[in-house]
Design goal:
Layout (H helix, E strand, L loop, with lengths): L1 H30 L12 E4 L4 E3 L7 E7 L4 H17 L4 E7 L10 H11 L4 E4 L4 H5 L7 E5 L5 E6 L3 H13 L1
Parallel strand pairs: 3-4, 4-5
Antiparallel strand pairs: 1-2, 1-5, 3-6, 6-7
Length: 178
């Protein structure tokens, strides 16, 4: 009887340890440059002109990093509002960087798609092409639009799916005041 209880306790402890280790591994994966409170993952993608753009080139500014797909109606709807926000705060050290990974046809975007998107929605902020989805994968994007607000120290302060213009504006103003 004692032996059975001892074996049961060992099994329970082993399973608990395994469960904790899995949770720890998930935590490490989750926080590496993509979670609030941690430094953002730097990357380089090409803009609508085909020129390389490195996210860290905006370091020292407030950055709104947006992940979107051109076919997404919420992404289409937020584009003009993001342009308004960009125009309002850009002279105060604020940048919008939008990473687009699919065209309106649901295929990888190209330079022409980026330019057409900019023209259609009247955006002047930075549009980047992530046709191979490498940056999308690094940031674990699972829904669009995904808005990530990065502070002047390159630390992620907000990670938010969807678009709430009032909340976003409040967060930006708070970061600009710091």
């Amino acid at each position: 009887m004692k032996h059975s209880i001892t074996v049961a306790i060992v099994i329970v402890l082993a399973v608990s340890t395994l469960h904790c280790n899995l949770d720890d591994d998930e935590e490490v994966t989750r926080v590496e440059g993509i979670t609030e409170g941690f430094l953002a993952v730097d990357f380089t993608e090409r803009d609508a002109d085909g020129a390389p753009f490195q996210l860290s080139s905006c370091s020292g500014q407030i950055i709104l990093l947006v992940f979107g797909a051109m076919w997404s109606q919420p992404c289409q709807a937020q584009a003009p509002a993001l342009e308004d926000i960009f125009q309002t705060y850009r002279d105060q050290g604020f940048q919008v960087v939008a990473v687009m990974f699919e065209s309106e046809q649901g295929v990888p975007a190209d330079r022409e798609d980026l330019q057409a998107w900019a023209d259609t929605y009247g955006v002047t902020f930075t549009l980047l092409n992530d046709a191979d989805r490498s940056t999308v994968a690094r940031y674990a994007v699972d829904d669009v639009p995904l808005n990530i607000l990065i502070d002047r120290t390159f630390t992620i302060r907000v990670r938010d799916t969807g678009f709430d213009q009032q909340a976003l504006t409040g967060w930006i103003e708070q970061l600009l005041a710091e």
